[in-house]
Design brief:
Layout: E1 6-7, E2 10-11, E3 41-43, E4 57-59, H1 70-87, E5 89-94, H2 99-103, H3 124-134, E6 159-166, E7 171-175, E8 178-182, E9 186-189, E10 200-208, E11 211-229, E12 254-264
Antiparallel strand pairs: 1-2, 3-4, 5-6, 5-10, 6-9, 7-8, 9-12, 10-11, 11-12
Length: 277
């Protein structure tokens, strides 16, 4: 329109051009910031070593940054939780101990199933050394680690969660211990706790004042696909927050629910001895 000035999409009026201190009178020509040959990129001068030794090219920075909508993320999590409680079934989940947990000092390697030269008189020191060196279970049916290598096998907490299961037809398998009906239901869990491959899921038959009394099936998690949303700039787009040296980037991805594929335990699995209460 005649008599108006624009910088990008911002109206200047009697203001200043491009962030400078030079006043711009109403009615003059539009003023735009300098543009590289490729409008999608801006070229950056190579800084001095040791920070950067190669020339690099970045996209031109955004003029407007969208803020995270924490309320929307929490709303989606609550929406999925309420849906699971309304249409799903309550189950028990036990989380498997893992190598990263042992590295963090949260669990120790099992010594019960380690062998010694004289099984009738086991030497605790030899078992401790064997466990530290091999870091693997010596017996798949160990009553302490259940063949998982780690003391207790599973974290000492039973999560009472709601899951929405889509059952699949049973498939008959012939094993050395007899015939086995294979089941691989697809289920949905809440966003917490983080479900991972190898975790144990108990399908509960009956409850007594919030305590599971009996279970009908036991499954092991085969694979997990977390469903996520992002309402703000991701870690790679947070230019204003990357100014500090070695400053970690924020992860703005939020998990709202988790979809998993379960596998029914075979009849000879040691996980039938794992407690669910």
């Amino acid at each position: 329109m005649p008599g108006e000035n624009y910088l990008g999409e911002g109206y200047l009026g009697e203001g200043y051009a491009g962030g400078s201190s030079t006043p711009v009178a109403s009615g003059t020509a539009p003023v735009f910031p300098p543009t590289p040959p490729n409008r999608s990129y801006s070229y950056v001068q190579n800084p001095l070593p040791p920070f950067q030794t190669l020339q690099y090219q970045i996209e031109s920075p955004l003029y407007i940054y969208k803020q995270r909508e924490n309320w929307a993320e929490i709303d989606q999590q609550r929406f999925h939780d309420e849906t699971l409680q309304w249409y799903g079934e309550e189950c028990v989940v036990r989380l498997l101990w893992r190598a990263e947990d042992a590295a963090a000092g949260l669990v120790t390697y099992c010594q019960t199933c380690q062998v010694t030269p004289d099984p009738t008189h086991p030497d605790v020191n030899i078992k401790a050394r064997a466990s530290a060196v091999y870091r693997q279970s010596g017996n798949s049916y160990c009553p302490d680690c259940y063949g998982t290598t780690f003391t207790g096998g599973f974290q000492p907490i039973a999560y009472h969660l709601y899951m929405l299961a889509a059952d699949t037809p049973d498939v008959r398998r012939t094993m050395q211990v007899g015939q086995f009906w294979q089941q691989n239901p697809s289920v949905q869990f809440s966003w917490f706790p983080q479900i991972r491959q190898g975790d144990l899921v108990f399908r509960v038959d009956s409850w007594n004042e919030g305590v599971p009394v009996s279970v009908s099936q036991r499954f092991q998690v085969n694979n997990v696909n977390p469903i996520t949303i992002r309402t703000g700039p991701g870690p790679s787009a947070q230019y204003p927050y990357r100014t500090g040296k070695g400053q970690p980037l924020q992860n703005t991805t939020k998990i709202v629910n988790q979809t998993c594929t379960l596998e029914a335990l075979p009849p000879d699995s040691p996980y039938y001895s794992v407690a669910f209460v």
